[in-house]
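Our preliminary data section would be incomplete without showing what the modeling component actually yields. Below, a chain of 188 amino acids is followed by its predicted structure, encoded as tokens that our downstream tools consume directly.
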Amino acid sequence: MLTFLLPRVVDRSTATGLLFVRLVAGTAMALHGAPKMMAATSWMGPGTVPGWLQALAAFAELGGGIAWILGLATPLASVGIAATMIVGIAIAHIPGGDPFLRLTVQGIDTGPGIPFGGLPTWLVRAGGRSAGGSGSSELASLFIAFAGLLLAAGPGRFSLDALLARRFGRRGAAEGDVDHAGEAALVR
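Predicted structure:
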């Protein structure tokens, strides 16, 4: 379990890319969750989801976004964000008939939208908007993809996770575990 929480070894250019992804996606996620924290137990409206679950989702978005920015507890933040986005797609976008992508077309701002380019309407629609939100699942899907990337690659060397791993050492490296010893050398 501890290995799951430790940052993976990546080269400097990959770490720089991961830092950029964390900063952009983390800022977007924190801003996505911040207004929900203003009404943490009721942002979805009455009778939809219990208030404590709404608060948990709002915290996962705001706190997870901040954690991504800092590169702190990145795996836990990624799991929380991915779970929240998957639930959002399952309880809001799919039942609402939202497509994966909704193109903005002037003059069509309400209703289900219209087909676009002969593509299936579950994939893309032009115009319209669902009653309950953005009208597409593309943003939630992107956040799931970022969470998957950060789970697979880790936060990189430019993160508080890596700093803490360097500061407190790795148990495996201290015990001579080859995998962890190599990681400890590269994370520094």
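Residues 170 and 184 are 7 Å apart (CA to CA). The first strand starts at residue 101 and ends at 103. Preliminary results of this kind motivate Aim 1 of the renewal.
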